[in-house]
Write a structure and sequence with these properties.
By secondary structure, the chain is α/β, with parallel strands linked by helices. 23% of the residues lie in helices and 23% in strands. Strands 9-12-15-18-19-20-21-22 form an eight-stranded parallel beta barrel, surrounded by four helices. It is elongated.
C-alpha cells in the first residue's frame, strides 16, 4: 500500500488536440496504485490540471472510463463540439487523457462519453473537478487550489482541540440557511460574508467546532448536500474554492475547528453525475439489490472495486490535505454496513458467508480510518451509525471500524422521547434517561441533537417540549443542561440554541428576530454558559469517554423524576455535582451525597432569572455537611428548581495523591 506521488512527466504537446496526448501526469506507479485501490492522491493526477508547458499554458485532462469507445472534452472553448479535443486511452488502465493548449482556469467543460455498449452517449461532469457551475447548471470548471493560508498556529496546535480529552462542543450548520440577507432577496451569505459573522457568533456562544452539513457540490438543494455529485468541489452556490478556504482559515485563526459531513454511502442518479458513467455501472454495483438505495433513490458505491476505493479514499484525504479540515463526520454508516438495510426479504443479496454484513464496505471503512489517522493523526473521524454495531470507534487492530467517535443516536432518541412527555408521565419512563449508562463507554460517543430531529414533521426542539410557554423553555433548558452533564462530546444543530419555533427549512434563514424576546435570549445565554463551563471545568470533559469520569449519585428517584450524578477529572480531584429535576415541582431540602467536604459553589442553574427562569436556587452555593448519604461521607441539602438543572463545583478537593 502506498501514497507516493510520482513525479510529473512533461513532453512537448501534440500538434493537434485530436492526436494522442504527449503530456501526462500519470506514471506507471500511478496507474498501478489506482488499479490496486491504494492511490490516495488522485486529485493531483486526474480531473483538470492547469499546466504551463514549453509551448504555453493549457490544461491536462484525465478521466476514468474503461468501457468508453471515445471520450471528448467539450466546452465553450470549442463550441461544445464532440468531434474535437478527443482524449486518448492510457494503456489498459481505463483512463483517458489529453492536454489542450490555451485552455486555462475558469474554462467551463464536460466530458462527452460514448460507450461501447447500448449506444450510450452522455455529457458528464468531471468526477475530480475542483469547481463547478452554480446549479441547476452542471458543467465543471477548470480551477486551481492556490491559496495563502494563515492558520499555521491552529494547525500546529490542533491536536489539543481534537483530542478525546478536550472539550468538543459542535455547532452544526447548514451554510445556505444559517443567515440570509433580507435586503438582497433573502439570498444566502457567501463563504466570505459568512466568515466573520459565524466566527463572532460561535465564539460568543462558546462552541469549539463547527460541523458543516455537506458542502460538496450537489444538484438538488433540498438534499441539503447529502446527494453529492462533486466529491472534490465545494458548492459554487456560495463562492469559489478559495472563498471556502478563506472561511476555514478565518475560523481556524480564531480558534474554531471545522468538521465536514462526508457521504460515501450513496450518490444521486443525475445524468451528469457518477451513475452509469461510461455506459456501465462503473462506480455503483450493477445489481439493484446492492447498487440502489430504496430510501434515497440513489446509487450505492461498489466498495469492492479497487478504483472506487481509490476515488473515495482520495476524496476523503483531499479535504484534510487541501482545505485543512479538522474532521470528517461520515453519514449513514449503518446503510453501508448492512446488505439488508431498509430492504425486505428477497430484496438483498447475502455475503459469501450467508450473512447480512457488507464485508466490502466494512473493509473500506477500516481502510478509510487507517489512512486518515496515519496521515492526519490530529484530526477526527466521526460515524453516524444508528445500530448497535460493535466497536465502531475502536481500533481496527482489535477488530473495530477505527472511527475516532460515534454519534450516540440511542441517547438522542431515548432522551427526546422522555422530554416530549408531560412531566406527570415521566416517572414511568425513567429508564429512558438512565439506560444509556449501561453502554455509555463502549464507544467514544458524541451526543447529537442534530438537524434530523427538527425536520419532516418532527417539530423544532422547543415545539416538542410539553406544557405552557414557560414550561417549554424550562424543559428545553433542562434538556441542554442534562446533555452537558452527560459524558460525551456535544453537538447542537443551529436554531436550537435560540428556541426556533418552526421546523428548519433549507431555503429560509433562522428566525433571528426571536432574540428580541426575553425567553429566547435567555435560552441562548444558557447555551453559551453551558459551553463556557464545559470548556472551563476539566471534570466536565477530560474523561468524556472514560468510565472513571462518571458516577451516579442517585439514578433511582423515579418517583420525583430526579437524577443526580458526579463528573470527575483525571488531572485533579475536583468534582462537579449535577442534579436534574424533570418535573415542574420545586424540590426543597433535597439531600445528595458528595465525596468531600468544604464549600460547593453553584456554578450553573438553568432556573436562574438570567435565563428567564423562576429564580429558585442555592444562593451561590453551600457548605457540605459531614452527614453520610448515598454512600458518601458528606452531603448537601439543596434546592432543585422546577424543570431545572443545577451544577455544583466542590471547591476543597483532597490532594491528588491522597
Amino acid at each position: 500500500m502506498s501514497d507516493s506521488k510520482p513525479e510529473q512527466t512533461s513532453i512537448t504537446p501534440a500538434g493537434s488536440t485530436a492526436e494522442p496526448s504527449a503530456i501526462t501526469l500519470l506514471s506507471s506507479d500511478d496507474l498501478h496504485f489506482f488499479n490496486e485501490g491504494t492511490h490516495l492522491h488522485l486529485y493531483e493526477k486526474l480531473g483538470s490540471q492547469p499546466l504551463v508547458t514549453e509551448e504555453g499554458a493549457g490544461t491536462y485532462f484525465a478521466v476514468w472510463a474503461p468501457d468508453a469507445e471515445s471520450v471528448a472534452v467539450i466546452g465553450d472553448f470549442n463550441g461544445w463540439d464532440k468531434r474535437k479535443n478527443l482524449l486518448q486511452p492510457k494503456g489498459s488502465s481505463g483512463i483517458w487523457e489529453g492536454f489542450i493548449l490555451g485552455v486555462g482556469k475558469g474554462t467551463v467543460y464536460k466530458y462527452f462519453v460514448a460507450s461501447r455498449y447500448h449506444g450510450y452517449r452522455e455529457e458528464k461532469a468531471d468526477p475530480f473537478a475542483f469547481y463547478a457551475e452554480i446549479p441547476p447548471k452542471s458543467a465543471s470548471i477548470v480551477w486551481d487550489l492556490e491559496y495563502s493560508w494563515g492558520d499555521q498556529n491552529w494547525m500546529r496546535e490542533r491536536y489539543k482541540a481534537n483530542s478525546l480529552k478536550a472539550p468538543m462542543s459542535v455547532y452544526e450548520v447548514h451554510i445556505g440557511s444559517w443567515m440570509r440577507v433580507p435586503d438582497d432577496n433573502h439570498r444566502s451569505l457567501s463563504y466570505r460574508e459568512l466568515a466573520p459573522k459565524l466566527t463572532e457568533y460561535v465564539q460568543k456562544l462558546g462552541f469549539t467546532h463547527i460541523e458543516f452539513m455537506p458542502i460538496m457540490e450537489h444538484p438538488f438543494g433540498g438534499s441539503w448536500g447529502y446527494q453529492t455529485t462533486g466529491y472534490f468541489a465545494p458548492t459554487s452556490r456560495f463562492g469559489t474554492p478559495q472563498d471556502f478556504m478563506y472561511l476555514i482559515d478565518y475560523l481556524h485563526q480564531n480558534g474554531i475547528g471545522v468538521i465536514l459531513d462526508w457521504v460515501p454511502s450513496h450518490f444521486p442518479s443525475d445524468a451528469h453525475g457518477l451513475g452509469f458513467f461510461d455506459g456501465t455501472h462503473l462506480y455503483e454495483h450493477s445489481s439493484s439489490q446492492k447498487g440502489w438505495h430504496p430510501d434515497w433513490n440513489s446509487f450505492i458505491f461498489n466498495y469492492g472495486r479497487n478504483e472506487v476505493q481509490s476515488f473515495l479514499l482520495s476524496g476523503a484525504i483531499y479535504w484534510l490535505d487541501k482545505y485543512h479540515i479538522d474532521g470528517l463526520r461520515v453519514d449513514a454508516v449503518a446503510s453501508m454496513l448492512y446488505l439488508d438495510y431498509s430492504r425486505k426479504d428477497g430484496e438483498w443479496i447475502p455475503n459469501q458467508y450467508g450473512g447480512k454484513e457488507n464485508i466490502e464496505a466494512i473493509w473500506f471503512l477500516r481502510r478509510f480510518n487507517e489512512e486518515i489517522y496515519r496521515k492526519f493523526p490530529d484530526t477526527q473521524t466521526i460515524a453516524e451509525e444508528s445500530t448497535d454495531w460493535p466497536m465502531v470507534s475502536r481500533p481496527t487492530y482489535v477488530g473495530g471500524l477505527g472511527f475516532g467517535m460515534k454519534w450516540d443516536m440511542g441517547w438522542m432518541h431515548d432522551t427526546l422521547i422522555y422530554f416530549t412527555k408531560d412531566p406527570v408521565y415521566r416517572k414511568y419512563l425513567h429508564n429512558q434517561l438512565t439506560f444509556r449508562m449501561l453502554y455509555a463507554f463502549t464507544e467514544n460517543f458524541a451526543l447529537p441533537l442534530s438537524h434530523d430531529e427538527v425536520v419532516h414533521g418532527k417539530g423544532s426542539l422547543l415545539s416538542k417540549m410539553p406544557g405552557d410557554l414557560w414550561q417549554k423553555f424550562a424543559n428545553l433548558r433542562a434538556l441542554f443542561g442534562y446533555m452537558y452533564a452527560q459524558p460525551g462530546k456535544k453537538l447542537l444543530f443551529m436554531g436550537g440554541e435560540i428556541g426556533q419555533w418552526r421546523e428548519w427549512h433549507n431555503e429560509e434563514s433562522l428566525d433571528w428576530h426571536l432574540l428580541q424576546f426575553a425567553p429566547h435570549a435567555g435560552l441562548q445565554r444558557w447555551v453559551a454558559d453551558l459551553n463556557h463551563a464545559y470548556r472551563r471545568e476539566i471534570a466536565l470533559h477530560e474523561l468524556d469517554n472514560d468510565p472513571k469520569g462518571f458516577e451516579w449519585v442517585d439514578c433511582s428517584d423515579w418517583e420525583q423524576s430526579i437524577v443526580s450524578l458526579i463528573r470527575k477529572a483525571n488531572t485533579t480531584n475536583q468534582v462537579i455535582l449535577v442534579a436534574c429535576n424533570f418535573t415542574p415541582v420545586p424540590r426543597m431540602g433535597y439531600r445528595v451525597g458528595v465525596p468531600y467536604g468544604g464549600y460547593w459553589s453553584e456554578i450553573l442553574n438553568s432556573d436562574s432569572v438570567n435565563y428567564e427562569g423562576s429564580g429558585l436556587g442555592n444562593l451561590g452555593g453551600m457548605q457540605a455537611e459531614e452527614l453520610p448519604f448515598h454512600g458518601r461521607p458528606f452531603s448537601l441539602n439543596i434546592t432543585v428548581p422546577p424543570l431545572g438543572v443545577v451544577f455544583f463545583r466542590g471547591e476543597n478537593p483532597p490532594p491528588k495523591d491522597v
